[in-house]
Amino acid sequence: MNIRYILTLPLLLLSLGLLLGCEQEPPKTTLTGKAESQMPAFSFPNLEGKQQASGQWDGKVLVVNYWATWCPPCRKEMPLFIETQKNYDEKGVQFVGIAIDDPDMVQDFVDVYDINFPILIGNTKAVELSNRMGNRFDSLPFTAIFDRQGKTRFIQAGEVHREVLEKELLPLL
Q: Is residue 11 in a domain?
């Protein structure tokens, strides 16, 4: 048997497998880890340096999103979150962003995108909190949705798409 054929066949099969795998639609939702059943209490500074405690949003449907300015999927989902906050604010939905990033970069991002919900500055304790919320792989973005009683209703690592967000939020209103 020809040596060129022996070397080429495995590469051809590998390429074919990768090509076929790329044509499949990825899953819409990626759940990670086991979340605590109730939202853990937290407090982080906002961009002005004032501590913001999670208790101030008691009784609301709370969407907590961990993100960073350097994270492409985080940047991509932000306009959806801004729009959803605007559309559902009066129905008791509250988004809270926890940025794992440099405060100056975050401020620039907030100014450009005109973000209409609280942005807090996270640290190592924020990463630990995201783990308690179910983010066992320290993924960004990571989103958790809590009902009005603070019970965990949804967690997702990776970008949240409109269909998924609406499917998870609407029953909680």
A: no
